[in-house]
Specification:
Length: about 900
């Protein structure tokens, strides 16, 4: 029985070791016997001569071991040299084939560069969102985001935000080495007058910098004494802002900077790429207490109803997540024991810890979920590219079957052929990887900024990780695309290939190429179905009735000079409203305290006489808003029943009146007796005045596209502390689009008073856009990857058919000579194209349907088994197959029978 090569090699190795030892023993014995003979000739007896010889030689076993090591080292060097020589010959031969076919090489490299490049670009997204912690975080495995998990309105919710007292409660938890708070985001006005700009500000407790382990690039961070009540305001610049605005000039330290209503002293510069505990870009870091006081916010330190802070903690030595959560939960519940006793807070509320990488937490963003899918999609694109290149390599191997047979006949080993083909695959994959890195370098920043504009993409070692990732992908790709063609080429039958000449086409490789093509088409179908689903989701989300047209509404918010406070702001807002309302192209302008997709306020559950309670709504609430006359007209909201506010009749001092949304009117007064109804809102004492319902306005979305119509209450004047003070925004309804009029509206509003420091004017649609971003991200990337996959699959189909036509030239000539017409030959080629495409399409549709439940949570109100999309994808693939087969079919029809049969 013949042993497999690997096992036989082991047996040969053992025999070789025994031969070496035997030769060494014989050589040592030969030299020892020579010395014994010399000593015996000198007059010593045999025994004396042998003893003296052994003493002269010393330890023979030690000599044997030394010689064995020397011999083994020589053998290893010899084998290493042989392997290197074989590798050089294989690489030289592969490089020669690559250079000799520049067109083929270019086609393969372009396909691989696109496939590997897609993965390289998406690696940057996945690395930033899912793999790497924020920059400059020391020992990130010990840092935790803190969440509050509680039951609210019958639903268990896990929230990122806490109140300021909740944060101070956590400072006393022994399982945490340190706790820090921050309020992220928000654009603040920097500077004054016409030179005023806006910057992204994050307000933080001073402990955040030390907790994360960051070190200032210049100057220092502000300390705890600089965040005390009444302390001098200080600010830390982000490194990128320092470079962009001040040219990285260290002389900026100590200068004053006007920010919002205060003047701050620059004390330091954060390190490059530092974004705190989040990934969003930051321009300025402000101390949290001082900035709150400067903006006129009082009472926040004791307010347990305002959720606006995020918290992060570092675990103490020896603490675990379980012990930290238990201790923090106990402290949280103890601090809220009064509210729990009054049944105004969930007694089962818990503090939950999560990794510093927010996408791994209990409440990952939709962007993170889509990013996971896109990472998988980019891998599918790579697999399609590998299948395509494997088909091309296999086609060329079949075309060169006679040359391979000649080499085998002349003694070339099949293992050597496999190594040479894998070496060629490695060279092609390396060239494709180089092109991919160029694409990632050129397009990465643009793609990242377009897809995730609210994420700061900093290098932070990404270039090195990207290079390692691309190298690993390169090796994997080389194996994926080179192994099948290499094995198939080595299986060539020498006799058959030499006998048939250039017309030999093995059935096995032909079937292999067909299956490779079916795989390409199937995967392309999956991507195209995903693209169609996300496009439909985006259109459904864009077409949802928000209750208002956000593109027609301008949102204005004023920043004030230092020391200018609320009593005067209301009058200036009204003056600005009147000025803007008189502009051409403006049909209404109104003031509001809260704005959809920007801010909302819920004040607990009101009471209605005669009802034990009002129905609960899934989104909470009811939500309240203090609005001025013209607000409903500016928003495009119609009064469905009753009347709107009339300033003269509903002025302050008059009996309180309110307007409710349609959904609330239907839920609370299903019989329709809402007008004139009484609602008590202020407290639970029973002494609250009766607020009369004077109108019903149509519903609109509050801050989420997927929520049910929320319950709203609108007031013209209300003295509740949560709605105290002037309006917070001016909303302007335009005709023909707000974007074109923003500049004129901003100038007109600023003319209302010299005390207006800056007018933040934007289209309300900008506030809605972040809600659309996950579906826009999925639609754009799935479509791009799907189109790329379709292009590669079409190229693969074309190459298969073109090769088949070239390989079957003799057969087609015979058919033509026997009377087969052009139509029949064209039909023969196109039938193969459509059969292969139909098989791949069927497999792809089944795979897409099987995976539908996985992607359905990311879609917007459409089924993941949407039949029109499946039908459109199938039709498109068959059309592409017909187009891809058109040129090979035309070539087949033009085969000259005499030329095809000349070889016979």
């Amino acid at each position: 029985m013949r042993l497999p090569r690997g096992i036989a090699r082991l047996f040969r190795l053992g025999a070789f070791r025994r031969d070496v030892r035997r030769d060494l023993d014989e050589e040592l014995r030969f030299h020892l016997d020579n010395v014994v003979d010399e000593l015996r000739s000198a007059g010593l007896s045999d025994q004396e001569a042998r003893s003296a010889a052994e003493r002269r030689f010393g330890d023979l076993r030690r000599y044997r071991r030394t010689l064995e090591r020397m011999d083994g080292a020589c053998e290893r060097i010899k084998r290493r040299g042989e392997l290197l020589d074989a590798g050089r010959r294989a690489l030289g031969s592969a490089l020669h084939r690559v250079i000799r076919a520049p067109g083929f090489t270019a086609a393969v490299v372009v396909v691989l560069a696109l496939g590997i490049g897609a993965n390289a670009v998406m690696f940057g997204v996945v690395d930033r969102l899912l793999l790497s912690p924020p920059q400059h975080v020391a020992d990130p495995d010990e840092v935790r985001h803190l969440y509050v998990r509680r039951t609210f309105d019958g639903q268990v919710r896990t929230g990122r935000t806490m109140t300021f007292p909740d944060y101070t409660d956590l400072l006393r938890v022994g399982a945490f080495e340190a706790v820090a708070a921050y309020a992220q985001g928000g654009a603040y006005t920097v500077g004054r007058g016409d030179e005023a700009t806006q910057a992204r500000v994050t307000r933080v407790s001073p402990s955040l910098f030390t907790l994360l382990g960051a070190r200032a690039a210049a100057g220092r961070f502000f300390g705890s004494e600089e965040d005390a009540s009444g302390a001098e305001p200080t600010v830390v610049l982000a490194y990128e802002y320092w470079e962009r605005v001040y040219g990285a000039d260290s002389a900026v330290l100590g200068r004053s900077l006007d920010i919002a209503q205060g003047t701050y002293t620059i004390v330091g510069v954060a390190p490059a790429g530092f974004t705190g505990a989040e990934l969003a870009p930051v321009d300025l870091w402000l101390p949290i207490r001082v900035s709150q006081e400067i903006q006129g916010h009082t009472g926040f330190a004791d307010d347990r109803g305002s959720y606006w802070l995020r918290t992060v903690a570092r675990l103490a030595d020896g603490a675990t997540d379980e012990s930290a959560m238990a201790e923090a939960t106990a402290a949280h519940r103890a601090a809220r024991s009064n509210l729990i006793g009054q049944d105004r807070y969930d007694a089962g509320a818990r503090i939950v810890t999560a990794p510093i990488i927010a996408a791994r937490g209990p409440d990952p963003s939709r962007e993170a979920s889509v990013a996971r899918w896109l990472a998988g999609v980019s891998l599918v694109v790579l697999v399609i590219a590998c299948l395509n290149v494997a088909n091309l390599l296999l086609a060329r191997a079949i075309r060169n079957q006679r040359d391979i047979a000649v080499r085998l006949a002349l003694g070339a080993g099949r293992g050597r052929l496999i190594v040479e083909h894998l070496a060629e695959s490695l060279i092609l994959a390396g060239l494709g990887a180089a092109g991919a890195l160029v694409l990632a370098r050129l397009l990465g920043a643009t793609v990242h900024g377009t897809l995730l504009p609210n994420v700061a993409f900093v290098d932070g070692g990404l270039a090195g990780r990207l290079a390692l990732f691309t190298f690993a992908v390169c090796l994997t790709t080389a194996l994926m695309m080179g192994l099948v063609p290499a094995v198939e080429a080595s299986r060539a039958r020498v006799t058959d290939a030499l006998r048939a000449g250039g017309r030999a086409v093995a059935a096995g490789p032909s079937r292999t190429r067909a299956w490779l093509l079916v795989g390409q088409v199937a995967l392309s179908v999956v991507l195209l179905v995903g693209a169609g689903l996300f496009v439909r989701s985006l259109r459904a989300a864009q077409g949802i009735d928000l209750g208002f047209d956000a593109r027609e509404i301008a949102l204005l918010h004023f920043e004030w000079d230092e020391g200018f406070y609320a009593p005067d702001q209301g009058g200036i807002y009204e003056e600005a409203r009147d000025r803007v309302a008189r502009m051409p192209g403006i049909h209404a302008a109104g003031l509001a305290y809260a704005v959809p997709f920007w801010s909302s306020i819920s004040l607990g559950r009101p009471r209605v006489p005669g009802l034990d309670s009002i129905p609960r709504h899934p989104s909470g609430g009811p939500y309240v808003n203090k609005v001025g006359s013209g607000y409903f007209e500016a928003m495009g909201l119609s009064i469905a029943l009753g009347r709107a506010f009339v300033t003269a009749d509903d002025a302050e001092g008059a009996a309180p009146v309110a307007i409710v949304s349609e959904s609330m009117a239907e839920a609370v007064w299903p019989e329709g007796d809402v007008l004139g109804a009484c609602m008590m809102l202020d407290d639970d004492s029973g002494d609250a005045p009766c607020t009369e319902i004077v109108g019903v306005v149509e519903d609109h979305r509050r801050q989420d596209l997927v929520e049910d119509d929320p319950h709203f209450l609108y007031f013209l004047n209300w003295s509740h502390p949560a709605l105290a003070g002037p309006p917070q925004a001016l909303l302007v309804g335009t005709t023909g689009g707000a974007a074109e009029r923003l500049g004129a509206i901003r100038r007109e509003a600023r003319g209302a008073s010299p005390l207006i420091r800056f007018v933040d004017a934007r289209v309300l649609a900008e506030r809605v856009e972040p809600e659309l971003r996950p579906w826009r991200l999925g639609a754009s990337m799935f479509t791009a990857f799907g189109a790329l996959a379709l292009l590669v699959a079409a190229w693969g189909l074309f190459s298969v058919l073109a090769f088949d036509v070239a390989a079957r030239k003799h057969e087609l000539g015979v058919r033509s000579a026997l009377g087969a017409g052009v139509t029949r030959i064209v039909r023969l080629v196109l039938r193969r194209a459509l059969v292969l495409c139909a098989a791949g399409t069927a497999v792809g549709l089944l795979a897409a349907s099987a995976g539908a439940r996985l992607i359905e949570p990311l879609l917007f109100r459409i089924s993941a088994r949407d039949l029109p999309i499946y039908a459109a994808v199938a039709t498109s693939l068959l059309l592409v197959a017909a187009l891809a087969g058109a040129l090979p079919a035309w070539r087949a029809a033009r085969v000259d029978p005499r030329e095809a049969l000349r070889g016979d």
